Amino acid sequence: MSGRQETPEVSGYARSHVAISAVVGLLVAVLSVWWAQGFDIFYESLYRVNPTVEGGGIGSDWVAGNTIPALDFLIALVHAADVLMGAFILVMVFLHWAAFRRLADRMRQPGEERGEAVAADGGEQE
């Protein structure tokens, strides 16, 4: 292996310990789902969306059957807030991605000579 470790968060652990931990985690997740389904393994027994309104079900409008206007408004408000927060998160992800890409382009490789540049932090060049 080269001098750089590919997964520094698991340094100090044996590969077998990491593999065993992953297998145990996956096993616990699968058993949890199996237990939540009532120990059934057939796809016919999995939870389904049951229509509560005649002709409703998957693909029906989320307002169908709602007779409380305040609840309808709150549902619409939560959906709008969800869309706005999702858009904000995407903007922040791409903004940070672009900023770090730009920063990485300006960094020097180990052993690379200094170039002629302005000290961006307001300090003085040595």
Structure, described:
There is one protein chain. This protein is mostly helical. It is built from 2 helices and no strands. It is flat and about 75 Å long.
Strands, count:
0
**Contiguous runs where pLDDT drops below 50 for at least 5 residues:** none
Number of helices: 2
Structural class estimated from helices and strands: mainly alpha
Which overall shape is indicated by the principal axes computed on the Cα atoms? flat
Put the structure in a nutshell.
The protein has 126 residues and is mainly α. It is built from 2 helices and no strands. It is flat, with a radius of gyration of 27 Å.
Which tags fit this structure?
single chain, 126 residues, mainly alpha, 2 helices, 48% helix, 0% strand
Secondary structure layout:
Elements: H1 15-36, H2 69-106
